[in-house]
Specification:
Elements: H1 25-38, E1 42-43, H2 44-48, H3 56-68, E2 73-75, E3 91-94, H4 96-104, H5 119-139, E4 142-144, H6 146-153, E5 159-160, E6 165-166, E7 170-175, E8 180-188, H7 204-216, H8 220-223, E9 232-240, H9 243-257, E10 264-268, E11 291-292
Parallel strand pairs: 8-9, 9-10
Antiparallel strand pairs: 1-3, 2-3, 4-7, 5-6, 7-8, 10-11
């Protein structure tokens, strides 16, 4: 990639080494956060939430050093396909060198959300997961991250049922003053059909059947047991880019269950649609009322 564009301005996607940089403990902690939460990377705004300084410009300068000089971060070429890429926040992914450093320091974490290989899906997933973690701090909730929850139970995120394997994009457990909620999150850029005529490829119908069976029969209490007394619930959150798509998923869930389903809810975020625009802030996950398949509001506060 050229160092300068046609107007003679520096190309922000070209890596230019300017000197050596000393790697600090907070740098390694940020790389670990990016590995745990981002998968395929997080934007500079989202990474700032994990940085000890409150000054964004200082943090941005450090990200530039970690990318250009230390070569621990990289900005994928796929971002050039986003809408107005030169005005978007850069999405930073860990380089192979960064991952090797985490393993060397004993900070490599297993059981994190899997990268699908579809860059925009993985970026959306990182945005949602980061919002789940950071927004819980604002309201005083406690969240067990996927790696913490699955590591404690010594299990995979894959849930083996009678005739299907459920593979949630994100699995977390939320503790509020009133109850504990197991949360499954599915990321959909309105690319997955509701039904398929053949068994090749994914669709929402078998996935919703499995979720409804798993949650209604309270199998989550066996698969993800709670180690303390108290109310225990389970919800499925669907994040998609189109309201019509979300409503059609809700109607399908109602057809499958034979009635409106309150534990399936969703949120529409158009930034990750056809014109991909990296958001500049975390999504509000807990204070706002999410759409539900039953039409009734689901409140994380009671």
């Amino acid at each position: 990639m050229e160092k300068y564009d046609k107007a003679g301005k520096r190309n922000r996607f070209t890596v230019v080494k300017r000197g050596n940089v000393l790697i600090r403990d907070e740098d390694i902690a940020l790389l670990q956060y990016n590995r745990i939460i981002g998968g395929n990377g997080l934007s500079s705004r989202l990474l700032h939430a994990a940085w000890p300084t409150k000054y964004y410009n200082t943090h941005q300068h450090r990200l530039t050093q970690l990318r250009h000089d230390a070569r621990l971060l990289e900005a994928g070429d796929w971002q050039m396909r986003t809408y107005l890429p030169h005005r978007n926040f850069i999405w930073y992914a860990n380089s192979d060198k960064a991952n090797a450093l985490l393993k060397e320091k004993g900070m490599w974490v297993q059981r994190v959300p899997e990268a699908s290989g579809a860059h925009y899906h993985d970026a959306y997933q990182g945005q949602v997961y980061s919002s789940i973690i950071e927004k819980a701090k604002d309201v005083g909730f406690t969240v067990e991250r996927q790696d913490e929850l699955l590591g404690k139970l010594e299990r995979s995120s894959h849930i083996h049922l009678d005739d299907q394997v459920l593979k949630p994009d994100i699995t977390t457990r939320l503790t509020t003053p009133e109850r504990t909620i197991l949360c499954f999150d599915e990321i959909d850029r309105a690319t997955e059909p509701n039904r398929r005529m053949d068994s090749v490829g994914k669709s929402w119908e078998p996935k919703l059947k499995a979720y409804i069976h798993f949650i209604e029969d309270k199998k989550y209490k066996e698969v993800f047991p709670l180690d303390r007394e108290g109310q225990y619930a389970c919800v499925l959150r669907i994040w998609t880019t189109d309201m019509g798509n979300l409503m059609s998923i809700f109607r399908l869930a109602e057809q499958i269950a034979g009635r409106p389903v309150r534990f399936i809810m969703g949120r529409v975020q158009p930034e990750f649609g056809y014109l991909f625009r990296p958001p500049s802030a975390h999504y509000e996950v807990y204070k706002e009322v999410l759409h539900t398949a039953s039409g009734e509001p689901y409140l994380f506060f009671k």
